[in-house]
Specification:
Layout: H1 2-21, E1 24-27, E2 36-37, H2 40-46, E3 52-55, E4 58-61, E5 64-66, E6 70-74, E7 82-85, E8 96-97, E9 103-111, E10 117-120, E11 123-125, E12 138-146, E13 150-153, E14 156-158, E15 167-172, E16 180-183, E17 186-188, E18 193-198, E19 209-211, E20 214-216, E21 223-228, E22 232-235, E23 238-241, E24 248-253, E25 257-260, E26 263-266, E27 268-273, E28 278-280, E29 283-286, E30 292-297, E31 302-304, E32 307-309, E33 314-319, E34 325-327, E35 330-339, E36 352-354, E37 357-366, E38 372-374, E39 377-379, E40 383-385
Parallel strand pairs: 1-2, 1-3, 3-6, 4-7, 5-9, 6-10, 7-11, 9-12, 10-13, 11-14, 12-15, 13-16, 14-17, 15-18, 16-19, 17-20, 18-21, 19-22, 20-23, 21-24, 22-25, 23-26, 24-27, 25-28, 26-29, 27-30, 28-31, 29-32, 30-33, 31-34, 32-35, 33-35, 34-36, 35-37, 36-38, 37-39, 37-40
Antiparallel strand pairs: 8-9
């Protein structure tokens, strides 16, 4: 009997201990029976590591610094939205330097954490934000992960604008690369870029997951997503960047990414350089402001099974040596479906253009002889294959 009582006490202690670790902390007064804080900043600096902080609906004019693993989320259930807005008078004062030496004034900064930070069901609105006028290299960021792992899910990051330099979500750092997921979120109306992942100073490959988001720069001239020295997965996103100016939907540089099942609209929908990424089953639509839909520069990119609407411009432009594989794509509405930069300073070489379906083109394919072109199908095309000069 004594042993049974001891076992029961031990089990009760385990449950109590688990309950203590499962404490949910609040920001605001919408659930008065739970421990609460007046501001998000007070909560994230006070709760134990690994805690969950739920934020009541309302506007929170503050800059938030998170330096420990936790979950920060709006109250679930659709009762209202919790919004981090810029402080009074609009000037953000706290900043850190990014890996390029510029001053990032972040609405939420997640920095040097030992475990993941999850941001869920929260809005971050940069309307009216500015940096101090004395800081000539400062810029605004909605959510910034620096040397920190975590995820941004079911969130809205919007209206970060500052003289053409502001970013919605930014991730960078040094040392061993963390893990990062941005999923099921909306990133819109930034005036430089929606999402930037910069892995150039990590000692190990940075492989984020960017999945099922809407990145919409319709009301600005910003890029949608930029991957720099970063691989990972870019999947099932809708990316819109239609304007003249920057106007790039997806920019991939020195990266090895898997890009699949996205819908990408842009003045220049996709630009890649010095990379070996794979693009599969994407819908890529040029809005006609740039002379190409898919631009490659000295890359080993694999384009397989994509649908490319060139908007009357060139479909795929290949520049420089590499082993670009343009296979089994459907390219429509183009002045030239595949252009190998004949007669230019850096003509394409070592690439393969095979098994594509080309519809409604003035010229189907124009490639130097140092490339492979075969088994392509041409419909409603004035000149299927043009010779290089």
């Amino acid at each position: 009997m004594l042993r049974l009582r001891f076992t029961a006490i031990l089990i009760t202690g385990v449950f109590l201990s688990a309950s203590a670790f499962a404490t949910i902390y609040m920001v605001g007064t919408c659930q008065p029976k739970k421990p609460s804080y007046a501001t998000i900043s007070q909560a994230v600096s006070s709760v134990p590591a690994g805690s969950t902080i739920e934020v009541c609906p309302g506007n929170y004019p503050e800059q938030v610094l998170i330096t420990q693993p936790l979950t920060l989320e709006g109250i679930p259930g659709g009762s209202g939205v919790a919004v981090v807005v810029v402080p009074a008078r609009g000037v953000l004062t706290q900043y850190v330097q990014d890996v390029n030496g510029n001053d990032a004034y972040s609405q939420i900064l997640v920095q040097n954490t030992t475990g993941p930070v999850t941001i869920h069901n929260l809005a971050v609105d940069g309307t009216g934000g500015s940096v101090p006028p004395t800081d000539g290299n400062g810029y605004l960021v909605g959510i910034y992960y620096q040397n920190a792992s975590g995820s941004v899910t079911n969130a809205s990051v919007r209206n970060q604008t500052w003289v053409g330099t502001a970013v919605g979500i930014y991730a960078d750092g040094t040392g061993a690369a963390p893990t990062l997921t941005v999923e099921d979120s909306v990133v819109r109306n930034q005036d430089f870029c929606g999402i930037i992942v910069d892995g150039q100073f990590f000692s190990t490959p940075f492989t984020p997951t960017i999945k099922a988001n809407t990145v919409d720069q319709t009301s600005s001239e910003a890029m949608g997503i930029s991957l720099d020295y970063a691989g990972g997965i870019v999947q099932s996103n809708t990316i819109i960047s239609p304007f003249i100016g920057v106007g790039v939907g997806l920019l991939v540089q020195s990266s090895t990414a898997t890009v699949s099942s996205n819908t990408i609209y842009g003045a220049s929908p996709v630009e890649v350089g010095y990379d070996s990424s794979t693009f599969t089953a994407n819908t890529i639509v040029a809005t006609g402001s740039y002379p190409w839909a898919f631009y490659t520069f000295f890359s080993a990119t694999n384009l397989h099974g994509n649908k490319i609407d060139a908007g009357g411009q060139e479909g795929v432009l290949l520049i420089g040596s590499g082993s670009v594989q343009v296979q089994s794509n459907t390219i429509v509405n183009s002045s030239m479906a595949v252009d190998g930069s004949c007669g230019q300073q850096y003509p394409a070489s070592g690439s393969s253009v095979t098994g594509n379906t080309i519809i409604d083109a003035n010229i189907g394919i124009k490639m130097p002889s140092s490339n492979t072109t075969k088994s392509n199908s041409f419909y409603a095309t004035a000149s299927a294959v043009a010779a290089c000069p």
